[in-house]
Amino acid sequence: MPLQSQVDQTKLNAELDLNPVYVQEGTCEIPVYRLGQDGVQAATALQIVRDELILDGNARLNLATFVTTWMEPEAQTLMAECFDKNMIDKDEYPQTAELERRCVNILSDLWNAPAGSGATGCSTTGSSEACMLGGMALLWRWRARRQAAGLDSTRPNLVMGANVQVCWEKFCRYWQVEPKLVPMVPGRLHLRGPEAAAECDENTIGVVAVLGSTMDGSYEPVAEISAALDHLQATRGLDVPIHVDGASGGFVAPFLQPDTVWDFEVPRVASINASGHKYGLVYPGVGWIVWRDAAALPDDLVFRVNYLGGDMPTFALNFSRSGSNVAAQYYNFLRLGFNGYRRVHKACQDVALHLSGEIAKMGPFELLTDGSELPVFAFKLRDDVEGFTVFDLSERLRQRGWQVPAYTFPENMTDTAVIRIVVRNGFSRDLAGLFLDDLQRQVKLLDLHPHSHAPLVAPNQREAFTH
Ligand SMILES: Cc1ncc(COP(=O)(O)O)c(C=O)c1O
């Protein structure tokens, strides 16, 4: 398959067809895939780009994404005011840096970092970068321990469930760490304690526990995994730290499941990441990572630069980045407070539970999760439904603009195809009702015109859904 950025060679000389009302003088030829010789008026450029973008889906009808698709006008104004501030120039923009520091402190407090532990962290472009940093810290610590003991440090591995998001496979490939993926099996769709401990050995840099599996929204039992690793330490002397990938759950569990034990309360949890742009309720472009204490973040991962003015520590993979998302994160913390976040997420959860309950009652579906952990749930067709597939259903729902992904589970369960729905702020009970009506209508249609012999979406045309 060609890469998305690769252009069909026959299209290289294509030109934009300008509506005559936009042309200011003479003819205006604007190549599509090459830089035009002269520019156009600002208003013309704006109109052209807007015209192109009307082909994009409506973000609010996208039930596939975890990422924020609605913010208040005040937040948008604030973000626009901060676009020009470079997050990395902490000496130039000390107050933006201060807002980042406050956000890190708010999160470490929310995640129960022990008082005075010196928890440390930073903002990132998203959870992928945050996971990369968390993984690197585990790798560096393991290697230092092994080298100090005069042991082989060339074959690190990382233990996780096969349901992890692709960023962890990237981490392993980029840093040459062996991924030890515990397969999903029917009835156990994420990592559990005994399986995690069974995979660990002296080369294990850590275990990733996902709070809010991308596949079905379920929480991996961090406390159970930790207890299994405590037992491993007691019996085999292996001390394996945990990184919690709380991309979604890090911003949900503190508000909706305050009794779930998953964060720094668990002594084995060394670091936690979360996406500010998911249930942190900020537009795309911000993630967070917090380490329990300074010891969990090896000093040689921190670079100090003086060319920005002042002596600045930096430990993100990225360098320049707009300060607008961090300002917006702090805005949300101020604006909502604990109770506000709770109310927003509770409303999402109520909608998710309502939707999953109604879908379960429809007949052809079986729920795998119901939205009671993350406001996210997955369902599949019952085994005796043969006339159509979830891919057909997903395709038909697109006719009304709904984007609901159908996908198969990873290796070992690839014959299980599911649909996942992510309920986010702004997906109201009202919209949920309209979605249910459309779903019901499409199920009826597919029942009347089964596609088992001529599926709407042939197996080789099913678009892969990247988690
Ligand atoms: C569990 C998990 N980890 C990591 C990521 C990557 O997050 P981001 O898109 O913020 O880079 C995701 C995204 O869906 C996720 O669900």
Strand content: 5-15%
> Uncertain spans, ≥5 residues at pLDDT below 50?
none
- Tell me how many strands there are: 15
Number of helices: 11
- What is the chain-wise order of helices and strands? EEHHHEHEHEHEHEHEEEEHEEHEEH
Share of helical residues:
25-40%
Q: What is the average per-residue confidence, as pLDDT, rounded to a whole number?
A: 91
- What small molecules does this complex bind? pyridoxal-5'-phosphate
First and last CA, distance? 18 Å
User: Overall 3D geometry?
Assistant: globular
Judged by helices, strands and strand pairing, the structural class is alpha/beta
**What's the story with the biggest beta sheet?**
7 strands, mixed
Going across the biggest sheet, name each strand in turn.
Answer: 3-9-8-7-6-4-5
* Rg estimate, integer Å: 24 Å
Summarize the structure in words:
This protein is of the alpha/beta class. It has helices spanning 42-53, 73-82, 94-110, 127-148, 166-175, 193-199, 222-236, 253-256, 324-362, 390-397, 429-448, and strands spanning 15-16, 30-31, 120-124, 157-161, 178-182, 204-210, 242-245, 269-275, 287-291, 303-305, 312-314, 365-367, 376-381, 406-408, 417-422. The strands form 4 sheets. The protein has a 7-stranded mixed β-sheet with strand order 3-9-8-7-6-4-5, sandwiched between helices. It has a 4-stranded antiparallel β-sheet with strand order 12-13-15-14. It has a two-stranded antiparallel sheet with strand order 1-2. A hairpin with a 6-residue loop joins strand 10 and strand 11. Helix 2 packs antiparallel against helix 9 and helix 10 packs across helix 11. Pyridoxal-5'-phosphate (PLP) is lined by residues 66, 126-128, 131, 165, 167, 210, 214, 245, 247-248, 275, 287. The site of pyridoxal-5'-phosphate has 14 residues, from helix 4.
